[in-house]
TrEMBL record:
PANTHER family: NADH DEHYDROGENASE [UBIQUINONE] 1 ALPHA SUBCOMPLEX SUBUNIT 1, NADH-UBIQUINONE OXIDOREDUCTASE MWFE SUBUNIT
Lineage: Eukaryota, Metazoa, Ecdysozoa, Arthropoda, Hexapoda
Family: Belongs to the complex I NDUFA1 subunit family.
Transmembrane segments: 6-26
Job description of the protein: Accessory subunit of the mitochondrial membrane respiratory chain NADH dehydrogenase (Complex I), that is believed not to be involved in catalysis. Complex I functions in the transfer of electrons from NADH to the respiratory chain. The immediate electron acceptor for the enzyme is believed to be ubiquinone.
Membrane protein topology class: Single-pass membrane protein
Protein location: Mitochondrion inner membrane
Name of protein: NADH dehydrogenase [ubiquinone] 1 alpha subcomplex subunit 1
Highest taxon above the source species: Eukaryota
Assigned GO CC terms: mitochondrial inner membrane
Keyword terms of this UniProt record: Electron transport, Membrane, Mitochondrion, Mitochondrion inner membrane, Respiratory chain, Transmembrane, Transmembrane helix, Transport
Length: 70
């Protein structure tokens, strides 16, 4: 019958969802933040490197106070 496919469907769905949940924990462990910034566009990569250079943490909100006065 059609319901015989449900156990194998459940196993395949569970196995394929593991990497997505594992990345959440891996990012939390290594970056101290569970979410990544989107760096697909060039502008986003530039802003990521700018925030990393100014504060050392690209996930911290930066304002004018993050730019050092010279």
């Amino acid at each position: 019958m059609w319901f015989e496919i449900l156990p194998s469907f459940g196993i395949i769905t569970a196995v394929l969802s593991v990497p997505g949940f594992a990345l959440y924990g891996l990012h939390k462990l290594t970056l101290d933040n569970a979410y990544r910034r989107n760096t697909d566009e060039r502008w986003e990569r530039v802003m990521y490197t700018r925030d990393m250079r100014l504060t050392g943490n690209p996930y911290q909100c930066n304002g004018l106070e993050a730019i050092p006065d010279k």
